[in-house]
Amino acid sequence: MVRLITHNMLACHVKNCTKDNFPLVFSEVELVIRESEANYDFLRRFMPKLDWPALVDTARSLGDETLPDDQPEEWTDEQLQALHHVLMEMHVEEGNMTCRGCGHVYPISNGIPNMLLAEHEVGR
User: Fold this and answer.
1) Which one of 48, 68, 116, 124 has the lowest number of neighbouring Cβ atoms within 10 Å?
2) Residue 43 above 90 pLDDT?
3) Which domain, by its residues, includes 74?
4) How far apart are CA 21 and CA 106, in angstroms?
5) Which GO BP terms apply (predicted)?
6) Model's pTM, two decimal places?
């Protein structure tokens, strides 16, 4: 399943696509919420790897407005729960991810993104 924790690390890898290739933009999305037990220690360790502005923009594009514009220095339990929800409980089951730079579309089917490229799209 495409969760936002995964999406926050995906970029377009089409040959010569180096501008505006992150984050990929969701469209035609079927979003499913699957509750899961929160692990705040994991979230705290993972936070340095996040691109916060990309995460916030993506969450908002999917209808979640709970994350603050700027990443907090000190986290409340409520903020950690909101982060857990966005990263771990929001699942994109169907839809597309599109590169803003080159327009390449990566389809998502049954929660699995197809990140494979045609031979002519692969950089060598």
Assistant:
1) 124
2) yes
3) 2-121
4) 12
5) rRNA (guanine-N7)-methylation; tRNA methylation
6) 0.92
